[in-house]
Design brief:
- Helix 6 packs across helix 8, helix 8 packs parallel to helix 9 and helix 11 crosses helix 13.
- This protein folds into 2 domains: about 100 residues, Arc Repressor Mutant, subunit A (Orthogonal Bundle), CATH 1.10.10; about 210 residues, Rossmann fold (3-Layer(aba) Sandwich), CATH 3.40.50.150.
- The chain has 13 helices and 11 strands.
- It starts with a helix and ends with a strand.
- It is an alpha/beta fold and about 325 residues long.
- Helix 9 links the parallel strand 3 and strand 4.
- The longest helix has 25 residues.
Amino acid sequence: MLNETIMAEARSFMKSRVILTAAELDFFTFLDKKPATAKEIAKRGGLNVRATTRVLDCLVALGLLEKNSDLYHNTEMGAYFSAHHPETVLPVIIHFNHLWTSWSELTDIVKKGTDKESSAGPKFSDTELKAFVGAMHVIAQNLSREIADVYDLKPYKRLLDVGGASGTYTIAFLKKNPRMKAIIFELEDVVPLARERLKAEGLLKRTELIAGDFYQDELPKGCDLALLSAIIHQNSEKDNLRLYQRVFRALEPGGTALIRDHVMDESRIHPPAGTLFAINMLLQTRDGDTYTFQEIKKTLEKAGFVDIQLIRTGEKMDCLVEARKPS
């Protein structure tokens, strides 16, 4: 029995590959409109009929499609992979396709190490960047509301969301604190995505969108709360020190920096999801990593912050570290 369990773990990549391919070829969105045969699906995408049929049959076995005679259609679970589903996970799956390529290079990275000549942060093409921003919104929707509920936002008037993507956390924070206004500081290519989402949420008038690169540019001033949500793991400790220093200079005296990320225990094996994410950063970035609280605290102190506390621990990148700029 143990042998079978071990083998099942080792071959789980097969199931992932089938799902990733079906999502990449947009099978689920096509089948969201009406049931179709394998020939119809293949013809629509210029695909091989035999290979398409095998993938579709496997999706049936996985519980993502149903098959009646020669017609395939989405199950309740499979519908989440359709672009038309209100809670679609498709952007995340497209992002996972990007990860598949880099994770296939893990053996070479272990042998040779990472490319130290590359720039800091993850590397995306324009298409991959849009998929990544969409994926982060899907992943963050529920967690952002959870964080907004557990963190006391009442004392704050103006939020600086550093690298805020399409504004998921800004939206959650502004809805929780109706008196709060916000600045989202993001790359120029991402700002339109944030503007679109904020407009849809009716929060555009309370949010200023400023384009910039937090690796190179000074951050906007005048905020009493700065959020670094899922940012520090893509950086080296030196990169984070420079970022913390920029945040420190931008914050009002007495202002707070709030970091959301994986925070590892001193053994670096808990939470387990953080160990896998450290591998992801090994593959996706030049020097990114997951950090312990003591490592984060030490770097924040170098930047000038005080009263540094780990105020929330968790298993799903939901840990919170709080630090204050002296008054």
